[in-house]
Every structure is written in structure tokens, then in C-alpha cells.
Specification:
Layout: E1 8-10, E2 16-21, E3 27-34, E4 42-43, H1 44-47, H2 56-61, E5 67-80, E6 86-95, E7 103-110, E8 116-123, E9 157-160, E10 166-172, E11 180-188, E12 193-202, E13 207-222, E14 225-233, E15 237-243, E16 249-253, E17 259-264, E18 270-275, H3 276-279, E19 292-296, E20 302-307, E21 312-317, E22 323-327, E23 333-338, E24 346-352, E25 362-368, E26 374-381, E27 386-393, E28 399-403, E29 408-415, E30 418-427, E31 433-442, E32 452-456, E33 464-470, E34 476-483, E35 492-501, E36 507-512, E37 517-524, E38 527-533, E39 539-543, E40 549-552, E41 555-556
Antiparallel strand pairs: 1-2, 2-3, 3-5, 4-5, 5-6, 6-7, 7-8, 9-10, 10-11, 11-12, 12-13, 13-14, 14-15, 15-16, 16-17, 17-18, 18-19, 19-20, 20-21, 21-22, 22-23, 23-24, 24-25, 25-26, 26-27, 27-28, 28-29, 29-30, 30-31, 31-32, 32-33, 33-34, 34-35, 35-36, 36-37, 37-38, 38-39, 39-40, 40-41
Length: 558
């Protein structure tokens, strides 16, 4: 079009995307090519404007025979709240299929200075527009107060300095919203060193304001990017790093002075990597053989790698930089083949036990649909037996069906982007369908994680049900598993778990309601210090300065 905006793009994989824009150049709709005409389908000729610039071959593709299915629609509006404040709204409507429940809409509300004030999303049919606020697997309440400000117990409150740097952040703890977790940052050396301190509750210590983490970091700016050069962890143990003028890591030294060194070629590609762990040698008696050596050809493609045991792997690539073959130090060859129709897609990977002149060991073949998504994957063995898995997707790339070599098929159904039902079945004699296992998923929280999963056999006699509870930070607070009976009184509990976290987001207690036994975990910084199951003896964990575990309870590790 005259504005020069991109309207159609065909990728090297063969995927075609067409876009509509408004007078400001903003996207208002995007569609992708499809093979089957649906209720919401249109053609490229109808979708695109009458006048646009494209090559003659591309224009032939964008004809009335090119079917397009909707992917996303965008809309923009100006909204005035009941308080008289104006907001800009941006809506993205994603289509997963041509049904009402095959939609996901995300509405962003922005104020006049560009700050996002609110985001609302809906899966499937908007429950706020119907007589009830409960959908099959989604429940929410409509927001009408655009001046809403979350309270201290409802989110994270940040304090900034005059340079816009975060000084501290306060959020509610996972298990008690009345107890806060505070993460504070102190800057020194003009911001080059940052000290982070996290204070919060520790249920095992029966305290609500414990220093759980305190660690300084020192940074250096190279080409506008921050690179860490020093990090001090628990026990005042410091690791140091050096970089070259391009920001490439040259060396890393742990608190035990064990170093990893790296060297690069003029293109910035890693040429040599050396450290004591990969060589497994005494640092006082270094091996002449480096941990890893990388050799490249004149075009910058990797040709060879050599490890500390002098094991070499050879690589061959084509003119597009794609791997063609890899030869291992044992003589086995991995061969790559690509689509010969001009689409840059991997079509097969073949392993030969000893050179390509021998019979193949295994072969993995790939086929793709019109949107360059994997439609089938076939594994072939030396005896010629083939096992194939077939995939089908919705418009957003979610797997709808997955067919297995044993004749079983897994069927998935969604409400928008949320999985609502899954079934494993097989076609019996005469085309009769036999369900092996099925499950339903219910989600009624902002985390988009399932609150309830019910699964079992089709006869309904052996159904099981998982129930989960989460906090507003998506951490699991409880998990129950019940075997369902014919009536609620017949329900048999199998698992009852409650999880308690400390202020550093670490699991502090795992309570088993069935046995009434608690597993407790204590930490030193970010390392597990000890654990205890019920009234049993405490298991202590000892580490060296590098963080390698030396002792685990009564077990010594070297």
C-alpha cells in the first residue's frame, strides 16, 4: 500500500501471514493461510487491498484460491471513566477456532503518559456479558472502577530513587497476606555495586522479619549492557568474572580460586574453553589437553570440537549455515536432510552406526502442515519398522489431536488458551470408539493454572480428582487427590498436601495431612542447610566454597 506497511509475508518455511493496518499504520487484523474453508475464512484477494506492491509470483499466490483463517484482531479506543479520567484501550482478540469459546481477548488500559493501569483478559465467551459470571472453566468479575489502586496486601509496592532505580519492593508473603516480604537494594560506586537484601517470614524460626538473603553484586557497562564482574554469596564467598571489550566472558573464578577461561576468535566465536571440572584434573597439575576446543572454517561455521579426552566431533554445513552431518568420535554419523521444495525445513535426521555406507541405525522423518507446524514425526529402525505420531493443531498452534503408533489418539479441547478436556481413545472394530482415559480441567483464578482436574476411565467407576489452591503469585498452597465414589460420602482422600514458603520463595514446610507429618527445610541464603521429616533426626548439608555438596546427612560426597 502507499504507506509502505507490510501486508503479506511468506517465510522461508512456507508460512504465509497477511495483515491489515489502519490509517496510522497500526495492525488491525492478522490472518494465516489454511487449506480448509471455514465459517470465518476469507481469501487473500478479499482480505488485501486492491492496490499493493508485490512480485508477480507472490501476487499469483495472493489470489482468490488462497484461503486465510483469522489469527488476531486488534482494536484501539478512548475511554472515559466515571471519575472523568481518560484512558486509551488496546484490545487483542486471538482466534483458536471458529467457535465462541475458541477466543482469548486481552484488554490493556493505558493512561495519558503511557503507563498501563489495568489488564483484563477473558477466555472463551465473556462471562461479564452473560446472565451469570461463571463459565464452564473460567470465572471472573467485571471491572468498572478504572481508578482502582491495589492495597499493600494485593500486590507489589515499589519505591524508586530520583534516578528511577528501585530502592525497595514490598509484597505480601505467600501464606499470610498480612506479613510482608521486603526486597531492598543499596547502590554504591555510582551504581556499580548493588546490595540486595531480602527480609521476610521464616515459619521454621517462628519469625516474621528474618534476613533471608543478602548479597552484593558488582557490574561493569560494556557497549550499553551490564555485565557482572563480582558476586558475593552466603558466607562472604565471592566469585569474580572478567570480560573483553566486546562483553565476551574471558574468565570466571569461584571462591576456591578454580577458574574457567575462555578465548575467542576475531568473529567473537568461542575458540577455547578450559576448566578443572571438565578436565577432572588437579589444578596444581593441569593437563595439556584443554577442556573444549572449537575449530571453525573460513565462513565462520563450526567444523570440529575436541574435548579433554581428545574425543573429536566433526561438523559439515551447507551454504545457509545449516548442519548437514555430524561425525562422532565413535564413528557414528548423524545426517540432516532438508525440504527440497525450497522451504527451509528439516525433513529427516538419520543415524548411521559406522559411516553412511552402512545400513542406517535409526531415522527420524518430519512432515509439516501449511503453517510450517510439525504434522507428523516418524521413527524408522534398521529393520524397516516405522512408528509414526501425527499432530493436528488449532489456529494458534495448540495441539488438538495426537495420534500414536499403537492406534491411540489423544484429544484436547480448550476454552481459549486454557485446556478444558483431554481424552485418550482408540478406534475399535467397526470404528467403535473406546475411551481409555479422560480428564476435565477447571480454572477459576488469575494464575491460569487449573484449580481442579478430574480424570478416570469412561465407566466413571474409578475417577480421581486433583484440587489445587494458589496464592496471587501463582505459588501452590495446597494439593489434594481424592478417589471419587458414587456419592460424596464415598469419596476417599488419597493425598492432602499443604505448602508453606519463606520470604525468599523457598519451600519451608511440606505438610502431609494423611500422615500428619511435616517435612521442614532450612536454608542459608539460597542453599539448603538442613531438612527434617517429622520427629526424625535432622539431615544436615555441608558444601565447599564452590557450592559443591560435601555431606548429605550421613553420606559423604567427594
Amino acid at each position: 500500500m502507499a504507506s509502505g506497511e507490510l501486508l503479506a509475508k511468506r517465510e522461508t518455511s512456507g508460512r504465509l501471514t497477511c495483515t491489515r493496518v489502519d490509517g496510522f499504520g497500526r495492525n488491525i487484523e492478522a490472518r494465516m493461510q489454511s487449506k480448509v474453508t471455514g465459517t470465518l475464512s476469507t481469501t487473500a484477494k478479499e482480505f488485501l487491498p486492491k492496490v499493493y506492491a508485490a512480485s508477480s509470483d507472490f501476487m499469483k499466490l495472493l489470489s482468490d484460491k488462497c484461503i486465510l483463517d483469522p489469527v488476531q484482531q486488534y482494536s484501539y479506543d478512548l475511554f472515559k471513566s466515571s471519575a472523568g479520567n481518560s484512558y486509551l484501550t488496546s484490545s487483542t482478540l486471538s482466534y483458536f477456532n471458529d467457535t465462541d469459546i475458541g477466543q482469548l481477548q486481552v484488554l490493556d488500559v493505558v493512561d495519558c503518559v503511557g503507563q498501563k493501569k489495568m489488564q483484563r483478559s477473558r477466555q472463551g465467551v465473556d462471562p461479564a456479558s452473560s446472565s451469570t459470571d461463571k463459565h464452564v472453566t473460567w470465572k471472573c468479575s467485571p471491572w468498572d472502577n478504572f481508578e482502582y489502586q491495589p492495597g499493600p496486601s494485593e500486590g507489589t509496592t515499589s519505591v524508586f530513587d530520583k534516578l528511577g532505580r528501585v530502592l525497595n519492593q514490598t509484597r505480601p508473603s505467600h501464606n499470610d497476606s498480612a506479613i510482608n516480604v521486603v526486597s531492598s537494594l543499596q547502590y554504591s560506586i555510582d551504581g556499580g555495586t548493588v546490595l540486595e537484601t531480602v527480609t521476610g517470614p521464616d515459619s521454621n524460626a517462628s519469625a516474621t522479619n528474618v534476613v533471608l538473603w543478602s548479597a552484593p553484586r558488582t557490574y561493569i557497562s560494556i557497549n550499553g549492557k551490564e555485565h557482572i564482574i563480582s558476586a558475593t554469596n552466603q558466607g562472604a564467598l565471592t566469585s569474580e568474572f572478567t570480560c573483553d571489550v566486546a562483553g565476551n566472558l574471558l574468565s570466571a573464578s569461584d571462591p576456591q580460586a578454580k577458574r574457567e577461561t575462555r578465548k575467542y576468535n576475531s568473529l567473537g566465536q568461542l575458540r577455547i574453553l578450559d576448566n578443572v571440572y571438565q578436565r577432572m584434573q588437579d589444578p596444581a597439575k593441569p593437563s595439556e589437553q584443554l577442556s573444549m576446543t572449537y575449530i571453525y572454517n573460513g565462513t565462520g561455521q563450526l567444523e570440529k570440537t575436541i574435548n579433554a579426552n581428545e574425543g573429536a566431533i566433526m561438523f559439515n554445513g551447507d551454504s545457509k549455515g545449516r548442519p548437514i552431518s555430524e561425525t562422532g568420535f565413535d564413528g557414528r554419523v548423524l545426517r540432516y536432510q532438508y525440504d527440497d521444495a525450497g522451504k527451509e525445513r528439516l525433513s529427516s535426521m538419520t543415524v548411521y552406526p559406522s559411516g553412511e555406507a552402512k545400513q542406517l541405525e535409526t531415522k527420524l522423518s518430519f512432515e509439516y502442515d501449511e503453517r510450517a507446524r510439525l504434522s507428523s514425526r516418524a521413527l524408522t529402525f534398521a529393520d524397516g519398522v516405522e512408528y509414526e505420531i501425527v499432530f493436528e493443531y488449532d489456529w494458534q498452534g495448540q495441539v488438538m489431536t495426537k495420534s500414536y503408533p499403537n492406534g491411540a489418539t489423544k484429544l484436547n479441547k480448550y476454552i481459549g488458551s486454557l485446556l478444558s478436556y483431554s481424552e485418550v481413545y482408540a478406534e475399535g472394530p467397526g470404528g467403535q470408539r473406546e475411551t481409555w482415559l479422560d480428564g476435565t480441567f477447571e480454572c477459576n483464578n488469575a494464575t491460569e493454572k487449573p484449580n481442579k482436574i478430574t480424570f478416570g476411565k469412561a465407566d466413571g467407576q474409578t475417577d480421581f480428582q486433583h484440587t489445587f489452591e494458589y496464592d496471587l503469585q501463582s505459588y501452590t498452597l495446597s494439593h489434594n487427590l481424592d478417589q471419587l465414589g458414587q456419592s460424596p460420602s464415598d469419596t476417599k482422600p488419597l493425598v492432602q498436601k499443604t505448602y508453606i514458603y519463606n520470604g525468599a520463595d523457598q519451600l519451608a514446610q511440606n505438610l502431609d495431612g494423611m500422615s500428619n507429618v511435616a517435612k521442614k527445610y532450612n536454608y542459608e541464603g539460597k542453599r539448603l542447610k538442613n531438612s527434617q521429616i517429622g520427629d526424625a533426626n535432622m539431615k544436615n548439608y555441608v558444601y565447599d566454597s564452590s557450592g559443591n555438596i560435601l555431606t548429605k546427612a550421613d553420606t559423604t560426597i567427594s
